[in-house]
Amino acid sequence: MLNVLKSILNMKKAGFCGTLDPLAEGVLVVAVKKATKLLPFVTGSDKVYTGKMILGYTSASYDEETELIPSGKDTQTDSIDINSLIERFSGSIRQVPPGYSALKVNGKRAYKIARKGGTPKLESREVMINLLELEKTGEKELSFKVDCSKGTYIRSLVSDIGEFLGCGAVMTQLTRQSVGIFSIENSVTLEEVKKDPENVQKGIVNIEAVLDNLYSIDVDKRSFDHLRNGMNPEILELDLIDGYNYIRYEDSPAFILLKNEEGVSYHTFLREEND
C-alpha cells in the first residue's frame, strides 16, 4: 500500500505511523517528507476504535482470522450488567497482547510462531482505557467504542471481556476512528487517491497541528543559526522544559530539542535542507 501511494504522489520518502490488524479498517496515518521525523509523536497518541464482538466463542487470534471455537457457555446478552462491565475494564488495566501480533519474541514475530503451532510467550502490559462504551446489539453480540492509550490491543480487550463473562468473546469488526488529531472524517481512501491524486488534500494535516500540544519557544535569527549549525544548544540558555521542546523561527517549525538529566540534545530538524 505504501509503495502504491508513494508512486501515485511521486514521493520518495514516506512512512506509516503504526499498523492495523488484518481484519481492521480505518485511520492509518502516513507521514511524508520531513514529517517522517515526527512518527513517534503520532504513534504515541491515544486512539479511538469502534467495533463488534460475538459472545460464546474463542479463537487463537481473538478475532475471525482463525477458527472460531464454541465455548458451550451461555451467551445471552440480556443478563449482562453493562455498567459493571464498563467499570471493570475502564481506566488503567493490564492485558496480554495476542499471540497473533507483530510483537517480537526472541527476535521472531509472534504471529509467525503462532501460525506454526507455537505459543509465543508475551508479557502483560499496563494500558489506559480512557473511555469504554458497550451496547447490546444482538443476542450474542456487543458493539463497542474504545478510547485508549498507545499499545492497547482491542482483540485482547475483547478476549478479556469474554473471559470475565465466562462465555468467551471474539472480535468480529474493528474500525480505527482516530489517531490523536487524525480522524476518519478527515481521511482519504487509497481508492480515492488512485482516482484523483488531488483527493489527498482532504487528508493532509500540517506539521504545526501535529506539534501543537508540545511546549514551544520562538527564537531569533542568531539562535536559529546557532542551532542550525549543530552547536551546543545549552549555550543559548533557552527557557526549556524537561522533555520535548518545539522550537519555532519566523512563525514556522524549526527544531525539536530534548531536555533530560543528561542535558539538552537535538531530536529533530524540521526544515528542508535549503531552508
Structural commentary:
By secondary structure, the protein is α+β, with helices and mostly antiparallel strands. The protein has three domains: 2-44 and 181-208, no CATH class; 47-179, Pseudouridine synthase; 214-269, Archaeosine Trna-guanine Transglycosylase, Chain: A, domain 4, CATH 2.30.130. It is 20% helix and 34% strand. It contains eight helices and 17 strands. The chain has helices at residues 2-9, 39-43, 82-88, 110-115, 154-165, 190-195, 207-210, 221-228, and strands at 14-17, 25-26, 29-32, 47-55, 57-58, 69-70, 91-95, 104-105, 108-109, 125-136, 141-148, 169-179, 182-183, 215-219, 243-249, 252-260, 263-269. The strands form five sheets. Strands 2, 4, 7, 10, 11, 12 and 13 form a seven-stranded mixed beta sheet that branches. A hairpin with a 2-residue loop joins strand 8 and strand 9. The mean pLDDT is 91.
